[in-house]
Design brief:
The complex is a heterodimer.
Chain A lengths: L11 H8 L17 E8 L8 E9 L5 E10 L12 H7 L9 H14 L1 E5 L5 E3 L10 H6 L1 E11 L9 E9 L11 E6 L2 E3 L5 E2 L5 E8 L6 E5 L5 E5 L3 E6 L3 E2 L11 E4 L8 E9 L5 E9 L1
Parallel strand pairs in A: 10-18
Antiparallel strand pairs in A: 1-2, 2-5, 3-4, 3-6, 6-7, 8-9, 8-11, 11-16, 12-13, 14-17, 15-16, 17-18
Chain B lengths: L2 H13 L18 E4 L9 E3 L2 E4 L7 H5 L4 E9 L5 E8 L5 H9 L3 E3 L1 E3 L2 E3 L1 E9 L3 H4 L10 H5 L2 E9 L10 E4 L4 E4 L5 E5 L4 E7 L7 E7 L5 E7 L14 E2 L7 E4 H5 L39 E4 L2 E2 L18 E7 L14 E6 L8 E8 L2 E10 L7 E10 L1 H9 L5 E15 L7 E16 L16 E17 L5 E17 L3 E15 L2 E4 L2 E20 L18 E20 L8 E14 L3 E17 L2 E12 L3 H4 L12 E14 L3 E18 L11 E18 L5 E15 L9 E2 L6 E11 L3 E10 L3 E2 L4 E5 L4 E5 L7 E2 L3 E13 L3 E10 L7 E6 L6 E5 L4 E11 L1
Parallel strand pairs in B: 10-16, 19-22
Antiparallel strand pairs in B: 1-18, 2-7, 3-6, 4-5, 4-9, 7-8, 9-17, 10-13, 11-12, 11-14, 14-15, 19-20, 21-22, 23-24, 23-52, 24-25, 25-26, 26-27, 27-28, 28-29, 29-30, 30-32, 31-32, 32-33, 33-34, 34-35, 35-36, 36-37, 37-38, 38-39, 39-40, 40-41, 40-42, 42-43, 43-48, 44-47, 45-46, 48-49, 49-52, 50-51
The chains are: A mainly beta, B mainly beta.
């Protein structure tokens, strides 16, 4: 027998780090949109069943250069890693050296079929990302397992114009549940915003003062918070209610936190003292922790 | 905060099973006031009583020196045998001008009360400063001598007195006292009393003077028909903890050891007066981040090194502040630092071993209170003797300390909504039965500590993106121990030692209400040894190192870790709670022999031994492994020795590594190390020592994450890892024989790991691999009881893995980092710092007050400690240590 190894003393450096905050170098914050970012992905339907065709949409912000393409891939969760999906190396080899402009339509169709088989879902702006759920994807699972479902990974690669290396490509991935759930999920929707308690009319540009702190609260649509049925491990059905939360992104200024904590939905934005531009955007992403995701873009003027 | 790493961490907390190992009571330890840092075991027992000068012989003042008005001090090394007579004497600090010869001749006639350890009177070597001080009569050419005629010897005592040292109230023996106007001189006896016969009535000038003390002079009035009694308080110019100025060296040392006195240790800057922290200034110990107390010994994981207090293994040696050890420094007698190559008494660990030994000496008279207050904590230790009049004397020591940074931090965070409250306290009670006949020993020792950390966060502000890992953070760590230390000589060259102990560890942690874990462990330990020593050439020691007990843990998580699908962040989860308990046993056996085959038993020592490490968890796990080990030390010449060790070391898996769901059988093996060391020791004079050691350690069967884990039928960890550690260590030390002490420590090492050798992976640098570790420590005593000490460190930076970027996980709201470089392929910049400690001692009649300032990193400024990345791993910056860390404090010492 040996003593427990994770000594509290090992936490001492973390404690010391907490005290050293005053001398940290300021690194960029996750809520500041100053470079190419993929902020959200929405699948419609949010929880497809076998045979459904899913349409995907992404919130991609590219402040420095226009986007060239956004590449969409899909793969099952059991072969995805922490980096998301990867194309089959054999397929990559097949792509290497190809010149699509010299290919015949038949060759292009065959290539497209190969790539689709390998997981390619779309190439924006040319090919909108869609995916049809195979009819037999849940075959062999029990009723409880079909109700719980399996997970599809969708990987998004945003490539700006003039990108010269991997470091300029933004990568992100999102999970999509596929099931025959009794209560399939739907993407939550934000109905409007409130600022310091006052309603912000949708579509209206928000007029704000620089260097001020504003409490902003996104308000969900009436049907956004769903009640759903869940089959517990011991085989009993249980009604549960979603617990959505919000992630916030701004171009400038400071936030009290990068995301909210359920059941609290408001956050504080301290606007920049000297805004770089008078016209800016505030983005709010909502997710229901069941795979559903949506967003709100709010125009701001200083 | 990502959920999965937090889950694993909390599961580790919940599954923790601290089970200290018991090791035998110290066989030998340094003299009181000294700090041991040996490289091997077999230490002689500590001195229970220091030698005391009974008969001081006054040397005639060298005529030439007297005529020239010269004074001087001769430093002698005096070997005192078991009868208290001087076996030999040599000059080690000459003064010239005839002083050396005169002092040597006189010293050879000294008579001492011999030093005593648990075996009885023992021979020792002491340093003695023989001072030649001119008094009024000497200046006039007269040489004061003791009365020569029998008539003088029959005269009644008319003037007597006692000399007592200020601050310590210690009686001063062998101290010259003069009546210059009468050409009379005498010396104090063992109790500090002096007596003059036939002093005529009237006023006389009395003077007491000796090297190292301020002279005291007083006008006394001798009254006819009475004995005039005076008491003189004498101020020491250089106070030390219960030891004569100089270094004790044992006559019968079996192995040479690195010895630091408590004074040296506690004056090293950056240690905050803690003797355990000095280990980080010695060879083989890596520098810990942020100067905390993490122990990385010879390239091993912190969890691979074992820490003991009086032979009882403890789960922590530092409080959660990483600065203060869990034992009151005033109770520490020695710290055994075993970086490697140690014998079979210590086991169940691959790395080093540190054994903190508590004091077994108590004030001869009265009681002693030591109190410390600094910016971070306060505490004290009360010690003394009781029961002497009843014939059953006991020594006692009662200590307690508490930190109060939890009271300070809120001042800085009052309006932030965040509250950070770290707090610790520790306590000790020791009772030592003294003066048992025949070298027997009995001691009862209670100690315990508690560490609490609470971080409160605003309820409505998210702490990271993980919605489940929110809320206040609480952590509790409590340890309680009681041990008996019993030793008794038996007949027929046998001795029996037994150290039974009981212990209770309670620890818990929680993050909000969703993530909680706790574990209680009740343990019974027994270390028993029965050494048989039929001659000075051979000793056989069989031993039992038993540990066992009951453990129980509970954990609550927002999802079930036994279901792989529950790791999906969008998957439905159910709160999961688990409770488990059981019994575990570790009945290790060992046997070693001390063989001295040469005619001179001090010349060569060979110690072969074997230990059987065993873990038995009924119904779940049984594993046994033998650890054969051998060490040897040979004294080539009087001041030179060569040494070496070779052996196997096995370490059982940690509790979280053994956890399997559904009562599945544990499959992991013990981790293993093969260690080899060779070294050279050299002494130069009485003050200088040098030590060079080469080491190599091969590690295999290291537990690593199972990369082929696909189902719950697979173990989480497998014994696939390899490690290799090699290097050299050098230490050059100057003992404090006068006003200066210091040492240089240098370690050159390489520590590497290979996690999956069958998969073509490469070796990588261990996380704490530090190629060069250089430490220089020095201290000097200045006039007016001022002390200045410094420590300079230069250490190679730790390895780190650079990231090239990250991929955004939209469901969890954070980036996963990826790297295009090899693991740990980069190095932090070197660490360089200079620390200073400045201390002033104030001495009063009945107490002493020491004020000090301990300043870390006074010159360089900030040092990078590790790398911090931004949210998407496209930017990074160093996290640096504080540029300057001061600590101000006081130490007070009362005798009453």
């Amino acid at each position: 027998m040996a003593p427990f190894p994770c000594h509290p003393g090992a936490l001492a450096p973390l404690f010391a780090l907490a005290l050293l905050g005053c001398q940290r170098v300021e690194l960029s914050s996750s809520w500041t949109i100053d470079r190419l970012r993929i902020l959200a992905v929405k699948a419609e339907p949010a929880e497809p069943a076998p045979g459904d065709t899913v349409a995907f949409e992404a919130l991609v912000i590219s402040p420095q250069a226009p986007l060239q393409i956004v590449l969409w891939l899909a793969c099952p969760a059991d072969i995805a890693g922490v980096m998301g999906c990867e194309l089959d190396p054999a397929v990559l080899e097949q792509l290497a050296g190809l010149d699509p402009e010299s290919m015949t339509p038949e060759e292009l169709a065959e290539l497209y079929a190969t790539l689709t088989e390998a997981g390619l879902m779309g190439v924006e702006p040319y090919l909108p990302p869609t995916w049809t759920v195979p009819d037999d994807i849940l075959d062999g699972l029990t009723e409880a397992e079909r109700n719980e479902g399996i997970t599809l990974f969708t990987q998004i690669s945003a490539i700006p114009e003039g990108a010269e290396g991997d470091a300029e490509i933004e990568l992100a991935y999102k999970r999509v549940p596929i099931s025959q759930a009794v209560t399939p999920n739907h993407n939550p929707a934000i109905d409007h915003l409130q600022i310091d308690g006052a309603l912000v009319e949708p579509g209206v540009t928000l007029e704000l003062d620089p260097g001020q702190a504003y409490e902003i609260e996104p308000v969900l649509a009436d049907d956004a918070v769903e009640t759903y049925r869940y089959l517990t491990l011991d085989g009993t059905w249980e009604d549960r209610e979603e617990e959505p939360y919000f992630s916030i992104f701004v171009q400038e200024g400071e936030l009290d936190a990068a995301n909210t904590l359920f059941p609290y939905s408001s956050f504080t934005w301290t606007t920049p003292e000297v805004p770089t531009t008078a016209e800016q955007t505030l983005w709010i992403v909502v997710q229901d922790r069941r795979g559903g995701m949506n967003w709100w873009s709010q125009a701001v003027r200083f | 905060m990502p959920l999965l790493p937090l889950l694993l961490a909390l599961a580790a907390v919940a599954l923790a099973q601290p089970a200290p190992d018991a090791v035998p009571p110290p066989e030998a330890s340094p003299p009181p006031g000294a700090t041991h840092l040996p490289e091997a075991e077999n230490e002689p027992p500590p001195l229970l009583k220091e030698p005391a000068l009974l008969d001081f012989v006054q040397a005639p003042y060298p005529p030439q020196a007297q005529a020239e008005g010269l004074e001087g001090t001769v430093v002698l090394a005096i070997e005192i045998d078991e009868t208290g007579h001087v076996a030999s004497a040599e000059v080690i600090g000459p003064a010239g001008h005839g002083f050396d010869e005169a002092a040597l001749e006189a010293a050879r006639q000294f008579v001492f009360e011999p030093a005593v350890d648990e075996t009885g009177p023992v021979a020792v070597i002491v340093e003695f400063a023989y001072g030649f001080v001119l008094d009024a009569a000497a200046h006039d050419g007269a040489v004061p001598e003791a009365p020569a005629s029998p008539a003088e010897a029959e005269l009644p005592v008319t003037l007597e007195g006692q000399l007592t040292e200020m601050g310590t109230r210690r009686a001063l023996a062998g101290f010259p006292v003069l009546l210059p106007d009468l050409d009379l001189q005498t010396t104090t006896d063992a109790e500090g009393w002096f007596r003059f016969r036939g002093v005529p009535p009237g006023a006389h000038h009395l003077k007491a003077a000796n090297t190292g003390f301020d002279a005291v002079e007083r006008e006394v009035e001798v009254v006819a028909g009475e004995v005039t009694t005076v008491r003189l308080w004498v101020r020491n110019q250089s106070y030390a903890d219960d030891e004569l100025v100089g270094v004790y060296k044992r006559e019968k040392e079996e192995v040479t050891r690195r010895t630091l006195s408590v004074q040296e240790v506690r004056r090293v800057p950056g240690t905050f007066g803690d003797p355990v922290r000095v280990i980080q200034s010695l060879p083989g110990a890596a520098r810990a981040p942020f100067s905390t107390g993490i122990l990385v010994i010879r390239g091993s994981n912190p969890e691979d090194s074992a820490v003991y207090i009086d032979g009882i293994r403890v789960p922590l040696i530092y409080h959660l502040d990483g600065v203060h050890s869990v034992i009151n420094p005033n109770l520490v007698e020695s710290v055994d630092y075993l970086p490697g190559g140690y014998g079979v008494r210590y086991g169940r660990s691959l790395g080093g071993a540190i054994d903190v030994r508590t004091r077994r000496t108590y004030p001869e008279e009265g009681h002693d209170l030591k109190w410390t207050t600094d910016l971070l904590h306060s505490g004290g230790l009360l010690s003394g003797r009781i029961g002497a009049k009843s014939g059953h004397p006991w020594g006692y020591a009662l200590g307690a300390r508490r930190s109060y940074i939890d009271l300070i931090i809120p001042f800085f965070t009052a309006n932030s909504g965040y509250v950070i409250k770290p707090r610790w306290f520790d306590y000790q009670l020791k009772l030592d039965r003294l003066e048992l006949p025949g070298g027997s020993r009995f001691c009862v020792f209670f100690f315990g500590f508690q560490d609490i950390m609470r971080v409160s966060t605003p309820d409505d502000v998210a702490q990271g993106t993980d919605q489940d890992a929110q809320g206040d953070f609480d952590m509790l760590y409590s340890t309680y121990r009681v041990l008996l230390d019993w030793e008794r000589p038996l007949g027929g060259h046998w001795k029996l030692r037994a150290t039974p102990s009981l212990g209770l560890d309670i620890n818990s942690g929680s993050l909000g209400s969703a993530l909680t874990g706790g574990q209680d462990t009740f343990m019974i330990e027994l270390r028993a040894e029965a050494p048989w020593e039929p001659s000075e050439h051979f000793r056989l020691t069989p031993g039992v190192d038993f540990i066992g007990g009951w453990w129980g843990f509970s954990a609550k998580l927002p999802f079930n870790p036994e279901i792989a699908a529950d790791y999906d962040p969008i998957g439905e989860r159910e709160p999961w709670a688990i409770e488990d308990s059981g019994w575990a046993w570790g009945p290790d056996l060992y046997l070693d022999a001390d063989i001295k085959p040469l005619a001179d038993p001090e010349r060569l020592l060979i110690t072969p031994g074997v230990r059987w490490t065993e873990i038995w968890i009924p119904g779940e796990y049984t594993e046994t492994a033998p650890d054969p080990r051998i060490s040897a030390r040979m004294r080539l010449w009087e001041h030179s020795a060569v040494k070496g060790a070779l052996g196997y070391y096995h370490q059982p898996p940690m509790p979280y590594e053994m956890y399997r769901p559904d009562e599945q059988r544990v499959e992991e093996d013990f981790e293993r190390a093969l260690s080899a060391t060779v070294g050279w020791e050299q002494e130069v004079g009485q003050a200088w020592t040098g030590d060079l050691e080469l080491f190599y350690k091969h590690l295999d069967r290291l537990l690593v994450m199972n990369d082929e884990f696909t189902s719950l039928d697979d173990p989480y960890f497998i014994n696939a890892g390899l490690g290799r550690i090699f290097g050299l260590e050098v230490m050059i030390k100057r003992a404090q024989v006068d006003r200066f002490f210091g040492w240089l420590s240098y370690t050159l090492s390489k520590s590497e790991r290979l996690d999956y050798p069958d998969e073509g992976e490469d070796w990588y640098d261990f996380d704490f691999d530090q190629t060069h570790i250089f430490v220089a420590v020095g201290g000097i005593q200045l006039p007016y009881d001022l002390e200045l000490s410094t420590r300079v460190q230069y250490v190679t930076g730790n390895p780190w893995t650079p990231y090239a970027g990250g991929v955004y996980d939209l469901d969890q709201g954070y980036y996963w980092a990826y790297s295009t470089a090899a693991h740990n392929s980069q190095r932090m910049p070197p660490y360089f710092s200079t620390d200073l400690r400045f201390e002033k001692l104030f001495t009063f009649k009945r107490w002493q007050l020491s004020t000090y300032v301990d300043m870390l990193n006074v010159i360089r400024g900030t040092n990078p400690e590790f790398v911090r990345y931004n949210y998407d791993y496209t930017e990074w910056a160093y996290v640096r240590s504080l540029p300057f860390i001061p600590n101000v404090g006081i130490d007070a010492n009362w005798r009453f």
